[in-house]
């Protein structure tokens, strides 16, 4: 079973996970769930997707994941895995095709450390637009974000590689991408103007088949965000 429309409280629970398949509980516009969708697509993993209404979650979903978060994975054996980096690492380990994490323990640790650093950047993507909407001066926050981007740019310059883990896309690129995919929606694309290597990285990423398969148009992102800001998120927008 695979659905686009979201399941809300009161909806019947989906049936068992089909044999030879893994199930993703997701939300179409969630950047964290986007990470897992990218990995599923990049690795060509057979899966079905159940979208969840995050404002009115079904009880049966909360029984599977008491935190009520997406992404959540469920196997045919009823095993449940959640938190985006954990779901992605799990998929890379269980499905050996198209490995995304490096085999070297040190290189793997480097990617995880970089992900920790990136987790300190993601709040800026929300704070700046929110501050702007509230009529606040966000120039200081914008300058800070540009500094963070400058460090990422420097990392690419020093490595002399096309992507953050080498000359092909690896896990860290997919872990970072959902927020860059939404740069135009956040009206932050200009923050890449003084980071040419990072800008080239974003352009290369946008050509990746998994990226193309899991994105929405800027207009769709903006329209959903408008419903979210108004307090009535339309998780089924555009369907």
Automatic annotation (TrEMBL):
GO molecular function list: glutathione dehydrogenase (ascorbate) activity; glutathione transferase activity; methylarsonate reductase activity
Q: Which UniProt keywords apply?
A: Oxidoreductase, Transferase
Report the catalytic activity.
methylarsonate + 2 glutathione + H(+) = methylarsonous acid + glutathione disulfide + H2O; L-dehydroascorbate + 2 glutathione = glutathione disulfide + L-ascorbate; RX + glutathione = an S-substituted glutathione + a halide anion + H(+)
Coiled-coil segments on the chain, per record: none
Q: Quick check: keyword GTP-binding in the entry?
A: no
Q: Does the keyword rRNA processing apply?
A: no
Write out the transmembrane intervals.
none
Q: EC number(s) per UniProt? A: 1.20.4.2, 1.8.5.1, 2.5.1.18
Domain GST C-terminal span(s) in chain numbering: 104-229
Q: Which Pfam family, giving just one, matches this sequence?
A: GST_N_2
Task: Tell me which InterPro entries the record gives.
Answer: Glutathione-S-Trfase_C-like, Glutathione-S-Trfase_C_sf, Glutathione_S-Trfase, Glutathione_S-Trfase_N, GST_C, GST_omega, GST_Omega/HSP26, Omega/Tau-like
Entry GO CC: cytoplasm
Q: Name one process (GO BP) from the record.
A: glutathione metabolic process
Limits of the GST N-terminal domain: 20-99
Q: What is the annotated role of this protein in its UniProt record? A: Exhibits glutathione-dependent thiol transferase activity. Has high dehydroascorbate reductase activity and may contribute to the recycling of ascorbic acid. Participates in the biotransformation of inorganic arsenic and reduces monomethylarsonic acid (MMA).
What the record says about family reads: Belongs to the GST superfamily. Omega family.
Protein's UniProt name: Glutathione S-transferase omega
């Amino acid at each position: 079973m695979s659905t686009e429309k979201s399941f809300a409280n009161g909806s019947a629970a989906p049936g068992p996970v089909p044999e030879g398949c893994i199930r993703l509980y997701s939300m179409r516009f969630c950047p964290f769930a986007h990470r897992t969708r990218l990995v599923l697509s990049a690795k060509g993993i057979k899966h079905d997707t159940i979208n969840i209404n995050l404002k009115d979650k079904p009880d049966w979903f909360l029984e599977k994941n008491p935190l009520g978060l997406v992404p959540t994975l469920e196997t045919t054996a009823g095993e449940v895995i959640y938190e985006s980096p954990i779901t992605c690492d799990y998929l890379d380990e269980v499905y050996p095709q198209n490995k995304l994490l490096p085999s070297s323990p040190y290189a793997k640790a480097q990617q995880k450390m970089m992900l920790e650093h990136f987790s300190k950047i993601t709040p800026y993507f929300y704070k700046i637009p929110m501050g702007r909407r509230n009529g606040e001066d966000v120039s200081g926050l914008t300058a800070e974000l540009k500094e963070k981007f400058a460090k990422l740019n420097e990392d690419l310059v020093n490595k002399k590689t096309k992507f953050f883990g080498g000359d092909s896309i690896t896990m860290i690129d997919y872990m970072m991408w959902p927020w860059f995919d939404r740069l135009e929606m956040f009206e932050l694309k200009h923050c890449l103007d003084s980071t040419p290597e990072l800008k080239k990285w974003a352009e290369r990423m946008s050509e990746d088949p998994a990226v193309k398969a899991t994105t929405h148009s800027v207009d769709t992102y903006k329209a959903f965000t408008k419903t979210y800001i108004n307090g009535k998120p339309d998780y089924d927008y555009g369907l």
